[in-house]
Design goal:
The protein is α+β, with helices and mostly antiparallel strands and 969 residues long. It contains 14 helices and 51 strands.
């Protein structure tokens, strides 16, 4: 199928296409917001009053119109079809935004493993193009080290479009897949330089830029062990490097197999005079930087140290290979990036031991070719360090490439600022981003002997690359996998990265160098890095004696707490066998003094001694944390009304407050008009926001109130008040959460379960594991009871527990149990106190019913430039409780990118199935919306098809519904 040739992984591709579309829209949005802020600042500087704001806003309408027009154009790439589509998702050549996504003179082809020289010839003959194969061995020269040589760049004849090439290649039996030669962009943040940031705070932060002392990678401490080595080779894949810069020239790699300036390809790698690297764009051996980004990156990795001038990199000495694939404008082609990776692999093959590649670029759509190239580099024991991106977004949900590829030796890097906060621009992801590093306002080298500030995850990434090179200067035998593990494990735990990166840590070069093992030794891995417990509770840590290079001796463990900890510490095994894991249990009592403790765990084996630090926080007995969410939001905020609007959260437990956290989301068009206050049940009022933020939109902020409500009682009404003090704006309180920490003044029972909902088929059983805790009482007996259901057989593992403990609720069903949803309530009781937890059991029939329904009134014309479009209906007679729904739609249309589909159920639920979509003609898609789950299928379903553009009329040829669900009759 053509679909399979163009995009083998549709799920991944659709997800990434949405990211690409969003980025284009955000660029236009930034322009609009920038115009607004600039005009507002000018107006206020010139003495304009708030009454002039309508004039400013009127003048901005044309900018907003441009932004909305861009959104309409970009949305053509934001929603892709399902894997059943018979036609490829090829961008519309008439759409400039689509055209900017890929090169129009070439495509990347993956030939099948059985291909030959004749396969190359057939592809060239069919398309009138060319493939670079100087030695005529049937392998594309610039990708020769990727896989078994099946990958190639096919240069197209001017008469052949990318769309035509992909369509023809889909019919070529020698082709496994083909894809556009996508464009790639650097990941430099879009912020102006600040002249006050004139010091290298990322390497050694003394508060010189107004930040937090110690919020750095501790480079000076690492340099006491090593300042690097020119035997360690790092590749910089970027815009090139100014190899003549006085702070870089001595640390540029020199090709030992090439004679300078003789005009001959001495080493036979396809590049003439590649003394310091290559330019993949021109195919030459001159990687001179004409942009600045790559030179800046190189300076952080290895600007020469101790030379009385300029800056210093993480390494004073290192060898850097410059590989240029990004041109002056900053956007390059995937094929050129692959050529750079191939060059690095070729160096490896020739005995040049390149150990890591810095990839401070990204944002491409997922491409199999680039992924295969990176996998090849990973397989060659090369560490791939990649920037996470600068969209302030969660890469777990919206991947950024190449950092989001799941490749063993790829390490994705987020950016932090001089206060150890996640940089505002930085992307993140607890699953997809590994580590943080300094990336805000970083001073480094620039072309033409200059220095300058840049910021972005591009600037964070070379800190990590430099750290890896420094570690290798201590022990060059470390593998890429070991480097990745040690970079993550040795980082400093940072609160802002907890839950936002896989490690929860910021790069700590000194700690990493300290932990770099000799060629054969052990390494301590401890999880978790820190815990928080109450007096009389127990903390458990897992300790592993990981081994490198065949280390096999036992490791003796010792634990020291600072300050002294009045608690029982037990190691399950000591000494610990090499490669084995044990546990450390710390059992506290009521006599354990509350506070923060640092525990040093030292492992010894002969002359090898290694220590790791972990943390333990002990809170007073009875400390409890309660999180409550507003139930009366969203609430509209009246415009220019001092009394405003209030939202109330009621605390029912008696808790002496120690700390209050407020998570606030307000959607508003001009937040400097707003005053936001929080009032406790005792009447204490705190201003959270008082007309700050200039012309910014929305408040999405967490407020930490450590002393304002101390010793007050949590029980009662907590009131959030929001008032607007100027005209012409609108907004609402979207939501807010109140998190209270304090000591229970009366017994409080906690019942918790990982999942309160279970789904089983008739005849199956379900189990609910519940944690039972008690706060504010030395007596901990909790009685458990469950409300029974006549159709269910319910049992508890224990009706009486001594908290903290756990209990298991088991629910048995039979083949005769009526399908449906069963609410279950488990109540824990202690004296006159009780607490309940609501559980749900969803019993499904053994054999679901599947019914299909088709429209009988088609075809219907779809008028152009008509938002109302055409509506067609299907009448469903079967009454099913919908489990899944599939909607198949076929539309003939010359420009389907502007077609919108809206489906309305008999109950009135209205879902947009498709808004604009991709750039190709026609629509043939199967949608699987989940929003109708649980509804009754019976009644009339309506599909509205509209075309908002004037690119030609179309026809709704057919549509159908396939319902899977349980009978309701």
């Amino acid at each position: 199928m053509l679909r399979q040739v163009f995009a083998p992984d549709q799920r991944l591709r659709r997800k990434s296409t949405r990211i690409w579309a969003l980025r284009l829209a955000r660029r236009e949005e930034d322009k609009y917001v920038g115009v607004f802020n600039q005009m507002s600042n000018t107006a206020r500087r010139d003495g304009w009053q708030m009454s002039h704001r309508p004039i400013i806003q009127t003048q901005l309408l044309h900018a907003f119109a441009r932004f909305m027009l861009c959104m309409l154009v970009v949305s053509s790439a934001a929603c892709k079809g399902s894997p059943q589509d018979p036609e490829p998702m090829i961008p519309d050549p008439a759409d400039q935004q689509c055209r900017d996504a890929y090169a129009h003179d070439s495509v990347i082809v993956k030939f099948r493993s059985s291909h030959s020289v004749s396969a190359f010839k057939r592809a060239m003959t069919d398309l009138g193009g060319s493939i670079e194969d100087v030695d005529r061995d049937g392998i594309y020269d610039r990708f020769a080290r990727i896989g078994a040589g099946e990958l190639a760049l096919l240069e197209l004849d001017a008469s052949v479009t990318v769309e035509q090439a992909l369509a023809r290649l889909s019919k070529n039996p020698d082709v496994e897949y083909a894809e556009p030669n996508y464009l790639i962009h650097i990941t430099e943040a879009r912020f102006p330089n600040d002249a006050s940031f004139d010091e290298l705070w990322g390497l050694h932060n003394t508060g010189q830029t107004g930040g937090t002392t110690g919020a750095d990678v501790r480079a000076p401490d690492a340099w006491s062990t090593s300042v690097g080595s020119r035997n360690i080779i790092a590749g910089i894949i970027d815009t090139g490097v100014d190899y003549t810069h006085p702070d870089l020239s001595t640390n540029m790699w020199v090709n030992p197999n090439e004679i300078p300036e003789n005009g001959i390809d001495d080493d036979g790698n396809g590049y003439i005079d590649d003394i310091h690297g290559i330019n993949a764009i021109t195919g030459s051996g001159d990687p001179m930087d004409d942009h600045g980004h790559g030179t800046h990156v190189a300076g952080t990795v290895g600007a020469t140290g101790n030379n009385d001038s300029g800056v210093v990199g993480v390494n004073w000495e290192v060898s850097m290979v410059a590989m240029k694939f990004l041109p002056r404008r900053g956007g390059g082609k995937v094929a050129d990036a692959i050529a750079c990776i191939n060059y690095a692999l070729d160096l490896k093959q020739q005995g040049v031991d390149i150990r890591m590649l810095n990839n401070s670029w990204g944002g491409v759509l997922p491409t199999q070719a680039l992924e295969e190239a990176l996998v090849a580099a990973s397989d060659a024991d090369i560490l791939l360090v990649a920037s996470a991106g600068n969209l302030s977004s969660n890469n777990d949900e919206s991947p950024d490439y190449p950092s989001s590829y799941e490749i063993p030796n790829l390490l994705a890097v987020a950016a932090t600022d001089h206060n150890d906060e996640l940089s505002p621009f930085s992307s993140y992801g607890s699953l997809s981003v590994d580590l943080g590093a300094p990336g805000s306002a970083i001073l480094s080298t620039m072309p033409d002997r200059q220095y300058g500030m840049k910021q972005g995850t591009s600037m964070a990434t070379p800190h990590v690359t430099g750290a890896a090179a420094l570690a290798l200067s201590v022990n060059h035998t470390l593998t890429a996998e070991e480097l990745k593990i040690m970079l993550m494990d040795s980082g400093a735990p940072v609160a802002a990265l907890h839950g936002r990166t896989a490690s929860g840590r910021r790069l700590d070069v000194a700690s990493m160098v300290e932990q770099v093992p000799p060629p054969s030794r052990f390494h301590l891995r401890i999880s978790p890095a820190g815990q928080v417990i109450n007096q009389e509770e127990t903390a458990v840590y897992d300790i592993e004696a990981a081994v490198f290079r065949g280390f096999s001796d036992p490791v003796s463990l010792d634990v020291v707490a600072r300050p002294e900890l009045d608690a029982t510490m037990r190691l399950a095994a000591n000494p610990l066998a090499a490669g084995a894991t044990t546990t450390l249990r710390i059992e506290t009592t009521r006599n354990t003094i509350p506070g923060e403790y640092s525990l040093t765990i030292t492992g010894s084996s002969g002359s090898l001694v290694l220590s790791r630090n972990i943390s333990l926080t002990v809170r007073p007995f009875g400390t409890v944390v309660r999180t409550l969410s507003s139930t009366d939001t969203p609430l509209d905020i009246p415009d220019n009304l001092a009394s405003g609007v209030i939202s109330t959260i009621t605390g029912k437990h008696s808790i002496e407050v120690d700390h209050v956290t407020v998570v606030l989301t307000i959607e508003h068009t001009y937040i400097s008009d707003l005053i936001v206050t929080l009032t406790s049940p005792a009447g204490t009022q705190i201003a959270l926001h008082d007309r700050l933020g200039g012309g910014s939109n929305d408040i999405f902020k967490t407020y930490y109130l450590s002393t304002e409500f101390n010793s007050e009682n949590f029980a009662g009404d907590w009131v959030l008040s929001v008032s607007d003090h100027s005209q012409y704006d609108s907004g609402r309180i979207a939501s807010w959460d109140l998190i209270i920490r304090g000591v229970a003044l009366s017994p409080i029972i906690d019942l918790e379960t990982a999942s309160a909902t279970r789904q089983v088929k008739q005849g199956d059983s379900a189990t609910y594991a519940m944690d039972v805790k008690m706060y504010g009482s030395s007596s901990r007996e909790v009685s458990l009871a469950v409300e029974d259901q006549p159709a269910l057989d319910i049992s508890l593992s224990s009706n009486q527990v001594i908290a903290p403990d756990s209990a298991v609720l088991t629910v048995e069903t039979s083949p005769l149990t009526p399908p449906g949803t069963y609410p279950l309530r488990v109540t824990g009781t202690h004296k006159d106190q009780s607490e309940s937890i609501e559980l749900t059991l969803d019993v499904r029939p053994l054999e679901p019913v599947i019914r299909s329904y088709h429209s009988v009134t088609l075809p219907n014309d779809v008028p152009q430039s008509d938002p109302s479009g055409v509506v067609d209906t299907i009448s469903v007679t079967d009454s099913l409780q919908i489990d899944t729904l599939a909607v198949e739609v076929k539309i003939t249309h010359p420009a389907a990118a502007r077609v919108t589909l809206i489906l309305t159920s008999p109950s009135g639920t209205r879902i947009v199935l498709r808004r604009h979509g991709d750039c190709s003609p026609n629509v043939y898609e199967i949608f699987r919306p989940v929003q109708f789950s649980g509804e009754n299928s019976a009644g009339q379903w309506a599909l509205r098809v509209s075309d908002e553009a004037s690119f030609g009329a179309g026809t709704l040829d057919s549509w159908s519904l396939t319902v899977t669900g349980m009978p309701l009759d």
